[in-house]
Amino acid sequence: MALEKKDLAMMREEYGSRELHRSDLSPLPMAQFAEWFNEAREVELDEPNAMSVSTIGLNGFPTARTVLTKFFDENGLVFYTNYESAKAKEIEANPRVCCLFTWLPMERQVRIEGIAEKVSTAESLKYFATRPRHSQIGAWVSEQSKVVSSRSLLLAKFSEMKRKFSEGEVPLPDFWGGYRVRPTKVEFWQGGQGRLHDRFVYDQLEDQSWEIKRLAP
Ligand SMILES: Cc1cc2nc3c(=O)[nH]c(=O)nc-3n(C[C@H](O)[C@H](O)[C@H](O)COP(=O)(O)O)c2cc1C
């Protein structure tokens, strides 16, 4: 059912359930991220590890898609994908990416700009081994981002791969693996009353230390 334009314009939430003060912040952005991420898990948000990753398309337009973060630490965030997908080609041409987490029930957003690089095969293998078997086979089946004439073709290829790998472990495809996004700039946004939101940005300096600044909402 289509919303009246008027109704859509009236859709708004009042924020302000929490505040973010400079004194709350960890000196390191990924430590601060860990704190917020753990809080998102504690309140049982749906898929808090889902993030939108933006790349610069080969045509110059920015482009974005959702992926799942499977690991993070002080060195950055890791997600897994097909190394021949559109995003992979874009990262190869320009490794500058932006990751966005939107945790609406907590009135929070985290924006992470950084440089994407492939993780080692050993790291991808370690993660691949933990995936359910059908997901491992799925990685072999999908030529991600390419045009496919029908779903039945995909299903036929899935059956073929299932037969091929009917015994033993499913090997890691050489066209599949992880990217680590090493942050260079991280912004934490906490919704505030009267749209006076709290925003703090961590900028990485040349000596690798981090400078924290409050931004106007
Ligand atoms: C909730 C959610 C999680 C997703 N997780 C992944 C993921 O971890 N890795 C991945 O390659 N694609 C994932 N996708 C699919 C991507 O959004 C995207 O369609 C796909 O990676 C192809 O993107 P590309 O053509 O820009 O390379 C996910 C989609 C959604 C909605």
From TrEMBL:
Cofactor: how bound: Binds 1 FMN per subunit.
Entry binding sites for substrate: R12, E13, E14, Y15, K70, Y127, R131, S135, R195, L196, H197
Gene3D superfamilies in UniProt: Electron Transport, Fmn-binding Protein, Chain A
Annotated keywords: Flavoprotein, FMN, Oxidoreductase
Gene name of the record: pdxH
Group of enzyme by EC: oxidoreductase
Cross-referenced PROSITE patterns: PYRIDOX_OXIDASE
SUPFAM superfamilies: FMN-binding split barrel
EC number: 1.4.3.5
Name of the featured protein: Pyridoxamine 5'-phosphate oxidase
Family designation: Belongs to the pyridoxamine 5'-phosphate oxidase family.
InterPro entries from the UniProt entry: Pyridox_Oxase, Pyridox_Oxase_CS, Pyridox_Oxase_N, Pyridoxamine_oxidase_dimer_C, Split_barrel_FMN-bd
Pfam families: PNP_phzG_C (PF10590), PNPOx_N (PF01243)
Molecular function (Gene Ontology), one example: FMN binding
Residues in Pyridoxine 5'-phosphate oxidase dimerisation C-terminal domain copies: 176-217
Named cofactor requirement(s): FMN
Domain Pyridoxamine 5'-phosphate oxidase N-terminal, residue spans: 42-161
Binding positions for FMN per the UniProt entry: R65, T66, V67, L68, T69, K70, Y80, T81, K87, Q109, Q144, S145, W189, R199
GO BP term, example: pyridoxine biosynthetic process
